[in-house]
């Protein structure tokens, strides 16, 4: 807002002219023209400016730029970027137990702060405007999100492999965090409750977390069916595959987002559909950890909401959401032998609109009057965007994080000509490096 | 060369200081220090400068840069970038017969020139220093390569689905091209002979091409076993799968590079190994066209030389070789369930050293005294390269074409701080666009 007049709040009006805008219209996905942003909302998109240009507070020339909704990363552990490249090419359980958990056990709030800032810097410059984060020391994460200007859905992921009093303390902390931060940062932060996974939380602990989610009226986020081994272990230990197990524990009575969901039977897909459980597909991480290839075409066919996540940078190893969009469009074609499995239009929506819908953000993820102004600009005056044919195809099959020049979240410009306006980049890189060195020297 | 003295040619001496250099030493893959280039060769790499710095004609500060061998793209049809985004999400045969071939039939030499320039621009700025190109109007391609300063192995790909006199004319043209250009552009261009594929060339025509390759003493490059349908068609038509078929036709009596090789039996892998046939693995294209996933781990285990190619931009859709390296490292892990299938070290070599070896360039692909000075610099002062842990991992799992800041080929700097010094970028983009518009309006 620019200021307050006698009777009303005066909104800042910005117009982008001469741009190309991706909208969710299958026949005509590109608007050549203008977009107007007032305060934190898009109020107009069309070929002609609705008012004379001098009536706008800010005029931005969109020539040679492609505008699209900001990318939505629905599964991340931002602080794990401190472990990027630390322990590659290992199976999930070995990687977790021998590499990640011992190092993460040493993480202080200070480490989480700088690991998260490192990830936010990478995500924001690469066009991600919203991310889901499940981790520990979440106050640090929330503060970093608040400072950065990004949008996030945050949750303290709890692992229940510990004595009951430690379980209780963790749950109390998770509840406190979820209550304190839900709706904060001008509504940019919302929260969820998270049992880390069926294999890291005893059933009675999961039930307690579900009850807390009911009490707070919040959704649940959890890892599920990431590896074949995890599924088999679940059957051996609890006599049921993870989907049935979580259903019995009442998890799906809450709105739920599950990450991975690689190993599913037809019956399990039906259950997910029945409960409107949303799936965060993490193709990069699933490939790297050799977890397998999720049954995304079947999930989509059955109407399950599928979005995309990077997972943490330790198993990806970057946070480039364009890459996840591309992998989602590419791998299912080869694995199913069907060249129209997950077409480009579907993949780009999974990385934007479906991402927002999957995390209950109903006014994010589209360039459309009334939607929150979370959007990005891509420099299309480059060889890999020529010829100027199908820009949805070019974004899905050819773009990368580094093509992003400008980013707006909630109507505020966070990246301008490739420079992040809200983060001291040099300091973040140096501090993250210092954390890593301390962690590995100890 | 700077000039010619009384008795000898005076070489230009360049030193890069304060750099980090990737070398092919598994235990110690990074040298922190200096590299010296004299004329077109690397003459030194080590921690200390061999001479006082003032004795070098050019001194380059390598701070915050990672230097590595230039990327080698072993299968491309550069001019097809004109068809980027034109006909996505289709099966190979439909895509070829209904989209690509009708449009390519209209390509003039002018189109091939600008399509190739567009691809060269994208490749060179993205760190590719050598590429294999199989296409038509190859004089245009060779001239574009010569002007750009890149290294290339070029071949007129011939399709024999035409009357004998047309076949003969094509072969004659291919022979003429191969003879004219082999060793040209200071040796930066070498040539091969190419039957396009077993499914596009009758057996007797392939035999004639093989004979020509014998006469010219040149290697052979061909598409092979890209789709299951092609393999089955080959069995139906000729009573043999493609590998046995090509063996019978004498192809493998010549040094041979085959592209794709997705559908192979164990026996076929043995045959490829026996004849030292090199495989250009094109993961991006194979995924996009739903061709399948090549048996790369098995090929590597059996000692077959495997390199990486983008294929044309119409089936990829970019020419980012970092992406091919990453896909090669990622997809085989998930498909085989083995998290160490194609480790990072193997993938980066496939995109560089093994690429050069696969196309008979024995002094390209390594930062090592005596090797040709084909190398690139990457800006590692960015979030996705932190923490500074394992740079081979960071390149494979986190880098992209846009991270490349500088490129040298044959000792000559072609890209400086992201600007291509040998190509008029604006003109190339405009001309390529014009060609596309003419082709689609006709």
From TrEMBL, chains A, B:
The keyword Zinc applies. It comes from Paenibacillus konkukensis. This is 5-methylthioadenosine/S-adenosylhomocysteine deaminase. Keywords: Hydrolase, Metal-binding, Zinc. It catalyses: S-methyl-5'-thioadenosine + H2O + H(+) = S-methyl-5'-thioinosine + NH4(+); S-adenosyl-L-homocysteine + H2O + H(+) = S-inosyl-L-homocysteine + NH4(+). Pfam families: Amidohydro_1. Catalyzes the deamination of 5-methylthioadenosine and S-adenosyl-L-homocysteine into 5-methylthioinosine and S-inosyl-L-homocysteine, respectively. Is also able to deaminate adenosine. SUPFAM superfamilies: Composite domain of metallo-dependent hydrolases, Metallo-dependent hydrolases. It is an enzyme of class 3 (hydrolase). Its cofactor is Zn(2+). GO terms for molecular function: S-adenosylhomocysteine deaminase activity. Binds 1 zinc ion per subunit. Substrate binds at residues 104, 156, 196, 226, 311. Its EC number is 3.5.4.28, 3.5.4.31. Belongs to the metallo-dependent hydrolases superfamily. MTA/SAH deaminase family. Residues 68-413 form the Amidohydrolase-related domain. Zn(2+) binds at residues 75, 77, 223, 311.
